[in-house]
Amino acid sequence: MSADTSFAKRSNRAAILFLSPALLFVFAFVAYPVAYAGWLSLFRWDGASMPVFLGAGNFVRLAGDAIFWQALFRNILVALSAIVLQVFLALAIAYCLVRIVPAFSRIFLFFYLVPVMVSEICIGLLWRFMYNPYFGLVNAGLSGIGLGGLKRGWLGESETAFTAVVVVMSFTYLGLYVLLFVAAVRNVPESVYEAAEIDGAGDFRKFFSITVPMVWDAVRANSLLAIIGSLKTFSLVFVLTNGGPNHASEVVSTYLYKMGFGSFEMGYAAAIGFAQMVLTALGAWIAFRYMKRIGAGAGAWS
Which residues cross the membrane (predicted)? Predict the structure, then answer.
């Protein structure tokens, strides 16, 4: 055995030794729960009695469950709104903080990051107070500017509950993407902007022709985070509306919770969770590939 081969084997053993705690963690808290959920989805189980094998019965039921598909559609709407109201709006704000008002960037970043540092449960409770139809700040503000006719029971009406939740989500996560994009925009070489200024380009032109193409990798990564987070969102919806009224703001995670811990249909809840995982991975992969294709032609924007 050569010295190089012996060294490579020792290096591999050392790498495995150092990676083993992380591998054990992944197996215990990721691989095993996913496998167990997949196994449980094949049974009818109330959490106490003996499981009854159904095979694909839970998935057949899921395919015909109108509430599940409506909840999934709302998750998709949340993901689309996150890309527009969180990712791309955050990129525009980050550009303004770095290129237009750099002197005030730190204080603005602080205010944008406050919601990120606060628990989602606290934010949900705060916004429930603000949306209160009787003494909430939203309706009081509308009355104060002469738009009292627009006052609503924002979280208690089917027409407005879901939109109200989306607004809270956008407010909560916007600051995180602003912070990430500020770092990306600061890494764009100053010489590129100076050359554009010599050619007479304004801030609008520089944003779309320089900033967006040059930070496109960050746009893709943040969009992927937004899509994954949107497809598995739970806390804010649970605190604000619990999926109501009459499933008007239901998302997949809240529906899963109700089936598992409200109706005690653990097997069906596992099927919902397993389907959610697969659809989230598929949606993230499709979005990532699509944005990669767009990024390949980003030079055309300039």
Answer: 76-98, 107-127, 162-185, 266-288
> pTM for the complete prediction?
0.87
Cis peptide before 245 (omega within 30 of 0): yes
C-alpha–C-alpha distance, residues 114 and 96, integer Å: 19
Write the DSSP assignment of 273-301 as a string of letters.
Answer: HHHHHHHHHHHHHHHHHHHHHHHHTGGGG
Point out which residues pair with 43 in neighbouring strands. Answer: 53
Q: How far apart are CA 78 and CA 187, in angstroms?
A: 30
Q: What pLDDT was estimated at residue 300? A: 43
For residue 271, give its domain range.
66-301
- Would 243 be classed as within a structural domain? yes
Residue 27 within a domain: no
Specify the CATH number for the domain of residue 148: 1.10.3720.10
Query: In a 3-state reduction of DSSP, which class is residue 37?
Result: helix
**DSSP H helices in the chain:** 3-26, 32-40, 57-63, 66-82, 89-95, 105-117, 120-130, 137-144, 161-186, 190-198, 203-206, 212-214, 216-231, 235-240, 252-257, 266-296
How confident is the chain (302 residues) per 10-residue block, as mean pLDDT?
61 80 88 90 91 93 95 95 93 93 86 87 94 92 89 92 95 92 92 88 89 91 91 93 93 95 94 92 86 63 46
For 22, 26, 282, the CA distances from 29, given in Å and listed in that order, are 10, 5, 21
Classify the C-alpha dihedral 162-166-168-172 as positive or negative: positive
Kind of pairing between the strands at 52-53 and 43-44: antiparallel
